[in-house]
Structure to design on (295 residues):
């Protein structure tokens, strides 16, 4: 995990976000007729290709001013999609009255993540009336997780993630006893109820620069496996920040009249905005990595 940001890194990231705003995002807003304000922000889907897949377009903006209208988050709720066609594959049927949620936490093992246990406990507190199954530490075997995924609508992983640059489908989530749940295993799985996956793990939406056109990473693999929406991270996240984002995310989703996975992008937007505002907008590593993919 990256624990802090020095001054040079802050300036560099701020410069990248401002360049994305000035040369990529701001020029298209008039054509989209997007405006600030309103009761609810509209959705926008980004479908970058090539090296652009590594850029945080969803966070583009000028962060030296507090005035509204200088960040994409003032105008729209951002999502990504690996292909335009992927947006038409999602189910348009009504969600269940109360989704079944599977949470997985690995606080021990390889470099400890004590915040993951806190993370799932916060989720349980915010979704008291939900049908939740939690697998923690030794309970989270590959077999039990796969079984739980086939029975659940939503799944939340709070653990380490590993990208395999040589063989992207061997990218994996680290479970009990260092066992690896490979992307290929998930893609091959029959998931009749799959709606939403939250990958609160390092670099789950990071591909490999030599394969950038193919958008191969854990998050894209979850979409391919059948999940209609995925929350993931573009690079390493801070163990102490993830529980707050997850808590606010599920509080927002379960606080609505019906917990609907199609509202996940709005819920993430809300959670990340709360985190960004609490940090004064300066600690870019704490909030920029979180992204939504899919419908």
């Amino acid at each position: 995990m990256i624990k802090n940001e020095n001054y040079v890194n802050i300036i560099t990231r701020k410069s990248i976000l401002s360049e994305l705003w000035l040369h990529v995002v701001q020029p298209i807003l008039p054509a989209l007729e997007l405006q600030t304000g309103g009761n609810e922000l509209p959705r926008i889907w980004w479908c970058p290709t090539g090296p652009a897949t590594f850029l945080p377009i969803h966070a583009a903006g000028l962060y030296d001013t507090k005035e509204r209208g200088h960040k994409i988050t003032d105008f729209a709720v951002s999502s990504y999609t690996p292909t335009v066609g992927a947006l038409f594959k999602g189910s348009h049927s009504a969600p269940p009255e109360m989704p079944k949620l599977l949470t997985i936490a690995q606080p021990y093992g390889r470099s400890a993540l004590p915040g993951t246990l806190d993370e799932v406990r916060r989720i349980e507190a915010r979704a008291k009336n939900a049908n939740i199954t939690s697998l923690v530490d030794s309970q989270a075997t590959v077999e039990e997780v796969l079984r739980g995924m086939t029975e659940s609508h939503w799944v939340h992983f709070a653990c380490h993630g590993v990208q395999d640059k040589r063989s992207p489908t061997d990218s994996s989530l680290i479970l009990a006893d260092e066992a690896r749940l490979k992307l290929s295993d998930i893609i091959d799985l029959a998931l009749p109820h799959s709606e939403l996956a939250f990958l609160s793990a390092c670099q789950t939406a990071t591909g490999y620069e030599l394969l950038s056109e193919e958008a191969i990473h854990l998050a894209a693999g979850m979409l391919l496996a059948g999940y209609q929406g995925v929350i993931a991270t573009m690079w390493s996240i801070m163990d102490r920040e993830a529980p707050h984002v997850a808590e606010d995310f599920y509080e927002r989703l379960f606080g609505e009249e019906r917990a609907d996975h199609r509202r996940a992008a709005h819920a993430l937007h809300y959670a990340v905005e709360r985190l960004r505002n609490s940090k004064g907008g300066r600690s870019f590593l704490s909030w920029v990595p979180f992204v939504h993919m899919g419908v």
